[in-house]
């Protein structure tokens, strides 16, 4: 397929409802190595779709240097572009198939037999086999999380049920009742899981699933505990577009994936993924993308002569090992330096969520003339909870960790700004914390 000028790019508008299923044949053909490189964009947001097509040069082919006839690029996934122009993640067929196979192997079940080549089951349609795995899709299908539900359904030879936005407990429950019997799986973001747990009928419906993948943002420990306490089989996931979605489940790398923790010099050097006591998370494996469009030599995808056919992606996240499980500490850019001390927001957020009356919280830093940065907690109170004493309780919970972690200010909001499918928009949160935009309370 790769000629002297490269392969063309086809913009693929992804509807938010079940009409997205019309694209399953195109996805299956792409996985088989046929057709152009596909660039998924939102069908219901012309402005975003046009911006992504422009930023990622959809009118120009993918050059041979960024492709491989033996393992052609299938998807070009746009990163969020929250800090500037979006980047295009180049995912070859082999990476997507490896991700689907590793997920099926980890979760177990009848999809194992077909996951090595999702294209094999592409034309099967809804399966009549009562043991076949059926997926529910409640995520935007132009993001990697939603796309993977479609691809995993192809791997299982079944057709997913699509839950159109907005996500509501009642519509979720009704969708589950329409699903075929047999093994059920879905992928949620933490905000969706919390909405399910707020409704008894939706909670009972979700408890019928044999696996509920939760990712897209850090899943608070209290939310995990609440879900498992009522019999919901959640699996926390860590990954990104550059790793074809989740590649670490419940802290354990998927089959074929290797996780290393790098020091700053390693991250800028050869990208080796040897284990250390803590550092920058790097992922190596067959599910790693080929690189970014038009960015040869990007340090996020370092040359790794010892990896053979495997590729390495150096994330922007910090992590440490807790036994044999990876604990993600958050983005290194999000670490707050206050009075010369480092404060990791995810650690503080976990403590603040245990405060009665706190429904959700994001901790950020704002410029401070004395301390360099001041810790600020942006808090969503529980509905009906009194808020007069909540700021003091939040500050006390941070102080109980250590003095630098105590929020110097608490901002109450009706909801946390999000970016993509449920991920906190930390840039918008910082603006709220700094008073640059009025709190939506």
From TrEMBL:
It holds the Pfam family AMP-binding_C. InterPro entries: AMP-bd_C, AMP-bd_C_sf, AMP-binding_CS, AMP-dep_synth/lig_dom, ANL_N_sf, ATP-dep_AMP-bd_enzyme. PANTHER family: LONG-CHAIN-FATTY-ACID--COA LIGASE, NONRIBOSOMAL PEPTIDE SYNTHASE PES1 (EUROFUNG)-RELATED. Residues 348-423 form the AMP-binding enzyme C-terminal domain. It comes from the Bacteria. One of its GO terms (molecular function) is acid-thiol ligase activity. This is AMP-binding protein. PROSITE patterns: AMP_BINDING (PS00455). SUPFAM superfamilies: Acetyl-CoA synthetase-like (SSF56801). Coiled coil: none annotated. Residues 55-292 form the AMP-dependent synthetase/ligase domain.
């Amino acid at each position: 397929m790769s000629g002297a000028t490269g392969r063309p790019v086809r913009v693929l508008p992804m509807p938010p409802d079940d009409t997205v299923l019309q694209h399953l044949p195109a996805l299956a053909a792409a996985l088989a190595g046929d057709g152009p490189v596909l660039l998924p964009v939102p069908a219901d947001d012309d402005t975003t779709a046009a911006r992504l097509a422009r930023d990622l040069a959809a009118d120009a082919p993918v050059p041979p240097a960024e492709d491989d006839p033996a393992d052609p690029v299938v998807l070009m996934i746009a990163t969020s572009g929250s800090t500037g122009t979006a980047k295009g993640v180049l995912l070859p067929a082999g990476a997507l198939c490896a991700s689907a196979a590793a997920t099926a192997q980890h979760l177990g079940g009848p999809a194992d037999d077909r996951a090595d080549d999702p294209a094999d089951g592409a034309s099967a349609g809804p399966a009549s086999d009562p043991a076949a795995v059926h997926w529910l899709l409640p995520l935007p299908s132009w993001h990697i999380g939603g796309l993977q539900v479609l691809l995993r359904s192809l791997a299982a030879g079944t057709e997913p049920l699509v839950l159109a936005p907005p996500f509501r407990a009642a519509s979720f429950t009704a969708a589950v009742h329409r699903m075929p019997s047999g093994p059920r799986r879905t992928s949620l973001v933490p905000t969706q899981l919390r909405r399910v747990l707020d409704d008894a009928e939706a909670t009972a419906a979700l408890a019928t699933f044999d696996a509920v993948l939760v990712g897209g943002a850090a899943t608070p420990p209290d939310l995990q505990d609440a879900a498992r306490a009522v019999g919901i089989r959640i699996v926390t996931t860590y990954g990104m577009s550059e790793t074809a979605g989740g590649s670490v489940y419940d802290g354990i790398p998927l089959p074929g994936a290797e996780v290393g923790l790098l020091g700053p010099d390693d991250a800028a050097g050869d990208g080796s993924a040897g284990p250390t006591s803590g550092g920058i998370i790097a992922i190596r494996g067959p599910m790693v993308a080929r690189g970014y469009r038009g960015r040869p030599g990007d340090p996020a995808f370092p040359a790794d002569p010892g990896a053979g056919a495997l590729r390495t992606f150096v994330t922007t996240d910090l992590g440490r090992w807790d036994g044999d499980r990876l604990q993600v500490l958050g983005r290194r850019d999000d670490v707050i330096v206050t009075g010369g001390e480092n404060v990791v927001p995810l650690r503080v957020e976990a403590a603040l969520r245990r405060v009665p009356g706190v429904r959700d919280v994001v901790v950020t830093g704002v410029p401070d003339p004395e301390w360099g940065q001041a810790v600020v907690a942006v808090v969503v109170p529980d509905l009906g909870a009194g808020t007069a004493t909540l700021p003091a309780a939040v500050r006390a919970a941070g102080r109980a960790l250590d003095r630098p972690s105590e929020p110097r200010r608490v901002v109450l909001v009706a909801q946390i700004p999000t970016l993509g499918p449920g991920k906190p928009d930390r840039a918008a949160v910082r603006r709220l914390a700094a008073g640059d935009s009025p709190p939506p309370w």
